[in-house]
## 1
Amino acid sequence: MEKIAPVTLAGPLVTLEPLASAHHDGLVQAVEDGEPWKLWYTAVPAPQQMRAEIERRLELQERGSMLPFAIRRNSDAVVLGMTTYMDIDPVLPRLEIGSTWNRASASGTGTNVDAKLLLLEHAFDVLGCPAVEFRTHWMNFPSRAAIERLGAKLDGVLRAHRRMADGSLRDTCVYSIIAPEWSQVRSGLEHRLAQHLE
């Protein structure tokens, strides 16, 4: 697999659009909904940091190590947040789904389930990944629970793995889904998504 090209992924609830500078204002509005940058165990950009974060992700895309998306809700075209393919290994191929955040008011509406289903389908069925990884802070219990609900399994914990903005050291939980598990994971996600489409 060569460098992953930007792609638009559309589901019943959300569309994942290749991240662009034009998403800035919508992303600022999204991050103000719930103010997730104030949680010490996250690395979500504050409103005044959004332009630099978009530029950072697009620079990593240019290098081939990241493919960033803006998440847009189909029902009203509102931007909900960001997600990415990151740490891309085009040789294996393998990647991580991460650097994801969403509007707090979208929680529980099925939009995150739809986004994860789109990302996993593309990774396994189109890109041919034998494994997809997820990483999060040991203390980010909501994120860990959400990853485990996907059907991902904990591979291990990288102790004192990364320094956070407040200077603390992060223990990183590493999860993955491998190709033989994908059909079962897909069924689970499709079932959860269907509950929001009735």
Note: The CA atoms of residues 7 and 46 lie 26 Å apart.
## 2
Amino acid sequence: MWAAVIVNTSKKEALKFLPKLICKLDELEIVPVMFESVRNFYYSEKVRYISNSECLITESCDVVITVGGDGTIIHMASHCAEADKPLLGINFGRVGFVATMEPDEISELSKLKDGNYFCEERMMLRISVIGNSFYEEFYAINDAVISRGSLSRMMDLSVYANSQHICDYRADGLIFSTPTGSTAYSLSAGGPVISPDMSCILLTPICPHSLFSRSVLFRDSDVINVRARGTNGFDTEAFLTIDGQKHIHLDDNTEVTIEKCKKSLKLISIKPQNFYTVLNNKLNERG
């Protein structure tokens, strides 16, 4: 069994934990595979280093283990979904809604070798950006956010589902999230919490210019289209942000399509977890 180990090298505690993890994997006869660039931070003869990042996930592993926070998992989610590789996240983040293992539970990794673990299917979004002369496609495990740029002007946003007009918003932006992403930016914007085993698309407005604008829940089969326009004759200067990591400038002629991705992230849990218990504990930690 081979395991791709993805470590967030900006986290000192994650790097300190790495030798312990590698020794445990070696003890279990699981071959750890890492990016060549990690050699500058950590080297071990027990590790296979690979320079081709695509081969690391698609060809060189049976499972992916991330050592970092939820951001590390989010960064790898689309790659794992595309390659149909299950992912186990070891939490070194501040909250860790998506990571399912804490560092002090490393002894539980024996269950990974034995196949004695649970695998959750997490829905992802497929986001298409269509302009006058370009087309781009992205995938999100948490959310796609359309928001204004550095200026403080609001935007007018028109939302359609299955080619039918749904509503118009005047707001700072809109958040389209998966059930997994309902506990991220959407929650901070006043959106509801959705169990991650559900399949739906959540729309939450950001600072809407209305006392009655609330979140909207769409079916997972709905195809949603959004256009953003500037107010009072100004351009939108809007941006599309994917999982807080990719940023795309939108102009008035750009249309964004949000729909359920055909592929999903397989998230490993070594032990059964009750989502609402985890949610309560994490929110208490967040304060």
Note: Helices lie at 12-27, 53-58, 70-83, 110-114, 185-188, 275-286.
